[in-house]
Amino acid sequence: MLANFLIGLREGLEAALVVGILIAYVVKTDQRQLMRPIWLGVGAAVALSLLLGATLTFGTKTLTFEAQEAIGGALSIVAVGFVTWMVFWMAKNARDLKGHLQSSVDRASSTGVWAVAAMAFIAVAREGLETALFLWTAIRATGGGFMPLTGAALGLAVAIVLGRLIYSGALRLNLSTFFLWTGAALVVIAAGVLAYGVHDLQEAGILPGLHTLAFDVSHIIPPTSWYGVILKGTINFSPATTVLEAVVWVCYIVPVMWLFLRTARPSKPKTTPTTPSTDQLATATTNTK
């Protein structure tokens, strides 16, 4: 539940910031006629994300066990790729997110209102599709059920509230610190999802070594125990892990975590101010009223 809450919170807040910046900019520049196309684009992106989640959830139930495992394993690897790209993109570009979105609005508005709707759709759909795919793989890895969905829904709800508070100026959030810690946590979660995806492909017979275990601590950490459930739900820890799963986990988390922390590390302040920092995003919308 905690891992899915974090995914919903992180991705939801990113989408909320994007929408907040877009709305604040069109209000500030007195282009209120663009509000409707922006909300149409946002609504279409949300609908597409929900459709993807429903398709993944119900569309694979009629397949054979091997086919389900093959699809689940492949999509887990794809989801890890998307999330890894997203984490690094935000770490690198968050400081200029506001300027990037504003210039996109200017270019789109010069083309027409439907171009603005398309721009808003693309900006939010990127977050929504990543969220739907990664949540599906993460929930599947933890065995499904009610609690993972509850965690994801709570994370999205908190993200919406935080986004609204930031937009209204009632909350100042250190976004640099937020994205640093949640990004590092997502790297750990992604490593577990990647290992689970490899296990799925082993069960489907695509990859070898299903019965070649690196370790088996099931007698110490029973999968059904409360601490076993917590480890499974947070970092996707499996008490019986194959050699290939362990190798893939290590080969992913060590270089990716090192590169992420190096990329996301705050740079030394310069004497000449440049682009707005991520911390300024929290107050960027307060000047629009």
Task: Please provide a written account of the structure.
By secondary structure, the protein is mostly helical. The chain has one domain. Helix content is 74%, strand content 2%. The chain contains 10 helices and 2 strands. It has helices at 2-28, 35-58, 65-93, 97-111, 113-141, 146-168, 175-203, 226-235, 243-264, 278-284, and strands at 213-216, 240-242. Helix 1 (2-28) packs parallel to helix 6 and helix 4 (97-111) packs across helix 5 (113-141). The longest helix has 29 residues, at 65-93. It is elongated, with a radius of gyration of 21 Å. Mean pLDDT is 82; it is low at 272-289.
Compile the SSE list and pairings.
Blueprint: H1 2-28, H2 35-58, H3 65-93, H4 97-111, H5 113-141, H6 146-168, H7 175-203, E1 213-216, H8 226-235, E2 240-242, H9 243-264, H10 278-284
Helix pairs in contact: 1-4, 1-5, 1-6, 1-7, 2-5, 3-5, 3-7, 3-9, 4-5, 7-9
